[in-house]
Amino acid sequence: MSRPIRVLCLDDARAAVAAADGAPVRLVSAPDAGGALGAGGWRALLDAITAEFPGARVTAVLDCGDAAGHAIAALALGIPDVAFSGDAAAAARLADIAQSLGAHLHPAEGVEALDLRGRRDPVAASRAWLTRI
Length: 133
Hints:
This protein is of the alpha/beta class.
């Protein structure tokens, strides 16, 4: 999978997907966005990206921090990729729920991601990030 790009809004997501130019792209939310933005906000972002870029190969992971309730809300809204950093027992239960819904539970992102906040040209920044070896 491509290198992750942290998106904070729909414009960031548009820039990242456009820069991917048909290649798979991994979008990640801000840490704990499941509480700040909410599952509904992330769902709306996913729906808009799907409508604007039909056929784009996007994995969009909503970080719910250690809040199991936020993760459950995200899964209930059909968000297919949710990150959770809570305790192992809760993670195991959430992983079972995710699997039953055809979704994936991810550990909190521990890898470097490009943050598009404040970038003058987020498409160019994303393109450079995605093609960097």
